[in-house]
Amino acid sequence: MTRSPLHDEHVALGATLTQFAGWQMPVRYAGDVAEHRAVRTAAGLFDISHMGQIAVRGADAAAALDFSVVSGMARLAIGRAKYTMLCTADGGIVDDLIVYRRDWDHFIVVANAANVGTVTEELSERCEPFDVAVENITHEVSLQAIQGPKAVDIVTEMCELGGDDVRALKNYTWCTALLRGDVHAMVARTGYTGEDGFELFVTPQDAVEVWRLALTTGVPYGLMPCGLSARDTLRLEAGMPLYGQELSLSTTPYTAGLGWVVQTGAAKELVRPGLNGAVAFTDERIERGDFVGSQALAAAKETHDAWAADPASAPHDARVLVGLVGQARRAARPGYAVMVNDVEVGVVTSGAPSPTLLVPVAMALVHPTARAVGTVVQVDVRGRRESMTVSALPFYSRAS
């Protein structure tokens, strides 16, 4: 197993450690619910050094990424980031990514920990015809996240220089800052919790100093160190998909309700996720050529549009992603069957009790005939049928 640069800090704080995607990472510290609620009410500090970091550099970097991923990157400005996906030629999802533009010829691609090797290989192969170099730099970066309504105050107070720039950041933008202790950091207003927050890119050599600075600065604001368990329930409440559960090679972005990420055809709106998982549109238009999976995804869009207009026309194995809310105490878990009138119509992909809403919530892939909000389904929870109601996603949205 690979250890984070912060491993000894986690041990000193009494964290429960677990193996995740080949890394030994903290699953919890004080407790799942306490950590979850700290992020919703104040702030949480996460070690996410396990996330993959891939550098794409060269004169053709923008063109190479335009061809490789489903969103246009050529017009992405320096200082901005974009949520996108790497798809196969038949439209299946290899991974969901965030791409940061560091310079005109330099991008950083953040991939899921379990997929970094695959993404690096795929990008390398797709970028081969271009003047560009693709390099896995995961072990050259420590990534830490500070999430929650107090995050902006904490991160700006951590800055020696650049605090005003940090506070002025819009969602999915980044800047550089000098943290107290003479530590240089790339600070991005991105995250995976449904709250406002920041991700700090620093060197592994500076990781411990930054972690301790965040705790020293943040604890008076109510900040708590948080593990993977709280991160999972936070993203579930926010309706954010997880690769290997909602997203896979057998699903397309349209299956997961993320078709807005795909920019096909000659003219499409530029889009980016809002702080709550919502979509912010701009009026800017771009011209795009073909990219890997473009034809299959155009066909997938037509298919899903047809299912939306006439759910009964969808084949038996058709699936779309929905939210489910229960009233009983027992939560649906991944792999549990979803039933309507004793007929299996889908499967739960993620599920847990919601510490914020105080009811069980889940995401599930179901037949289009069961997608309408308000539809009552039954979930087989360890041999007992529990009623749940189809809900719009996200379950939770922070106050603007």
Explain the overall architecture:
The chain has 400 residues and is an alpha+beta fold. The chain folds into three domains: 2-49 and 141-237, Probable tRNA modification gtpase trme, domain 1 (Gyrase A, domain 2), CATH 3.30.1360.120; 53-138 and 252-298, Aminomethyltransferase beta-barrel domains (Alpha-Beta Plaits, 2-Layer Sandwich); 313-391, Beta Barrel (Elongation Factor Tu (Ef-tu), domain 3). Helix content is 22%, strand content 35%. The chain contains nine helices and 23 strands. It has helices at residues 7-12, 32-41, 61-68, 116-127, 151-158, 163-168, 207-218, 228-237, 294-309; strands spanning 2-3, 16-20, 23-28, 43-47, 52-57, 81-87, 93-103, 106-111, 133-136, 142-147, 159-161, 174-179, 183-188, 197-202, 223-226, 268-273, 279-286, 320-326, 337-340, 343-353, 360-366, 376-381, 384-391. The strands form five sheets. The protein has a seven-stranded mixed sheet. The protein has a six-stranded antiparallel β-barrel with strand order 18-21-20-19-22-23. Strands 6-7-8-5-9 form a five-stranded antiparallel sheet, covered by helices on one side. It is globular and about 65 Å long. Mean pLDDT is 93; it is low at 266-286.
Looking at CATH, the homologous superfamily of the largest domain is: Probable tRNA modification gtpase trme, domain 1
Q: What is the mean predicted local confidence, pLDDT? A: 93
How would you sum up the global shape?
globular
Strand fraction equals 35-45%
End-to-end gap: 40 Å
CATH architecture of the largest domain: 2-Layer Sandwich
- The whole-angstrom Rg is 21 Å
- CATH fold-type name of the largest domain: Gyrase A, domain 2
Number of helices, counting only DSSP H or I runs of 4 residues or more? 9
Could you state the oligomeric state of the chains shown?
A: single chain
Helix content: 10-25%
Largest sheet: 7 strands, mixed
CATH class category label of the largest domain? Alpha Beta
